[in-house]
Every structure is written in structure tokens, then in C-alpha cells.
Amino acid sequence: MNGQTVVGRFRAFGALIAFDPNDLEHSSVKITIDMTESKTGDATRDAMLLKPAWFNVLDFPQAVYQATSFVSKGGNKYEARGQLKLKGVMKDVTLRFTLDINGDTAIATGETTLTRRAFNVGEGPDFEGGTPVALSVKVVTKVTATRVK
Questions:
Q1: Which of 10, 79, 83, 98 could form a disulfide with 71 if both were Cys (CB 3.0 to 4.6 A apart)?
Q2: pLDDT tens digits along 3-57
Q3: Is residue 4 part of a domain?
Q4: Closest C-alpha among 147, 57, 138 to residue 105
Q5: What is the dihedral of CA 63, 100, 80, 27, to 10 degrees?
């Protein structure tokens, strides 16, 4: 906000992951994010994010990203292609990620950029343009998963 970088986290989410680097065709990922648990470290900003103009958590308490298509980019690099449903709007989203597997533990670190207005986030005349809140939002993910046997 106002030209500064704001880092936020979603502290509660669930994941259904069926990913095999050797069988991308049959891989899938579904991440459900509890939007009521968005935290930026600023109580005033955190309260604002819950309101209808931003995440509208009363009507849309969850966001869901579901990927059903994956592309190997060489080595441990991949692209997940899927759809994000946020605030009632569904859009195609590609998530670039790296995957490091050690035994039964996998760590996926990814990144994508979203246009907040495409999901009706930051509604109202004060936030329609790129100030005081940027239109593009960089989303960084890190998921640690343990293989279920």
C-alpha cells in the first residue's frame, strides 16, 4: 500500500495432492485456502481485507486452486495449470514451481502473479487504479507434503 511492499500469509489451508513427476498426466492438486486467516502483521489492514470490498469473507470464506495439468520445465521445475476461484470469480492461473523430494517429504515452492481486479479484490473508487494499492499481486507458495502410504 502507498508504494510499500506488503507481505501477507494465509495461515490455514488444506491440500489434496496426487502428484507424480513420472506421471504428470494423472497428477492433480487442490488447495483450499481459509480466507478468514489472512494476516499481514497490521491489525487494521487485516480487518480491512475481510470486508466486502476486499476478500468478502462472509460470502466467500474460501478460495480454491485446482490444477489438473502439469508441464515439466526440466529438472525439478514445473508449471501447474488450473483454475483459481476467489471471491466467486474463477480464472485460469498458471503456477510455476520447483519440487524437491527427499524420501517421503516433498517441498514445492511456487510463484505466480494475479491481477487483483480480475477477482474483484479492492473494489471502490479509491482502489480501482494502481494506487494506493498495486493492481498486480505476486503470490508465493510453499507447501511441504508427506507421502501417505
A1: 79
A2: 578 899 998 999 999 999 999 999 999 999 999 999 999 999 999 999 999 999 9
A3: no
A4: 147
A5: -90
Look at residue 134 and tell me if it is in a domain: yes
Separation in Å, CA 64 to CA 74, 104, 118: 27, 25, 15
Would you say residue 22 lies in a domain?
yes
Read off the amino acid at residue 145.
A
* Rounded Cα gap, residues 57 and 63, in angstroms: 10
Q: Which of 120, 85, 78, 82 is nearest to 101 (CA)?
A: 78
With respect to residue 3, please indicate whether it lies within any of the assigned structural domains: no
CATH number of the structural domain spanning residue 29: 2.40.128.110
102-131 pLDDT, tens digit per residue, is 999 999 999 999 999 999 999 988 888 777
SS3 52: coil
Give the range of the structural domain holding residue 119, as residue numbers without chain letter.
9-146
